[in-house]
Design goal:
The complex is a heterodimer of chains A (114) and B (114).
Chain A lengths: L3 E4 L2 E5 L4 E7 L6 E7 L6 E7 L4 E4 L2 E6 L4 E6 L8 E7 L2 H4 L4 E2 L3 E6 L1
Parallel strand pairs in A: 2-11
Antiparallel strand pairs in A: 1-3, 3-8, 4-5, 4-9, 6-7, 7-8, 9-10, 9-11
Chain B lengths: L4 E3 L2 E4 L5 E6 L4 E9 L6 E7 L2 E5 L6 E5 L5 E5 L8 E9 L8 E2 L3 E5 L1
Parallel strand pairs in B: 2-11
Antiparallel strand pairs in B: 1-3, 3-8, 4-5, 4-9, 5-6, 7-8, 9-10, 9-11
The chains are: A mainly beta (114), B mainly beta (114).
Chain lengths: 114, 114
Amino acid sequence: GENVEQHPSTLSVQEGDSAVIKCTYSDSASNYFPWYKQELGKGPQLIIDIRSNVGEKKDQRIAVTLNKTAKHFSLHITETQPEDSAVYFCAAHSVANSGYALNFGKGTSLLVTP
Amino acid sequence: DAGVTQSPTHLIKTRGQQVTLRCSPKSGHDTVSWYQQALGQGPQFIFQYYEEEERQRGNFPDRFSGHQFPNYSSELNVNALLLGDSALYLCASTPGGGNTDTQYFGPGTRLTVL
């Protein structure tokens, strides 16, 4: 089945700096890649997603890039703020091989210090 | 517009007991998926319900079962609870109209098995 690796597991940045989280996937048929933010005691919140026909997508301070050849995708957060502190999960979806299931990475705990 | 709602928020059970968790999808969403999230891990797909049928199942034993009602709400039942079933159980809903991959999560139910 699909295997999604996520790095780093923890990331600490100063307020205003950029943060980058990277994920790799194993199933070349994967074509949908969402990113979720999970705050303590809450469910995962979809923050941005990208499909395989697009190489980059931006939404204000958040961007995601996708390299299908290398089978990796990354989340970029610019001008980080303390409220960005949370656990971030990447996921990959392959209708052909995973059906309707999202396959998640293990998460990155991001800490933004003032 | 209410998001995905789940009840109860927290639950404590003892080994061998049975539990029922409930989920109401976002308005306009007709598909419900259930995930198990162990501490420090990404969510793991349990199963998905569409048109009141289990459409796909992940690698979980038959002790895990579910149901979807005509109003699209759903229940997750777990029988013969084990200590290892302690986790955050997440419900996610997917819009209708052919969108099969975007999933929006609820806040989860924290199950503790003693």
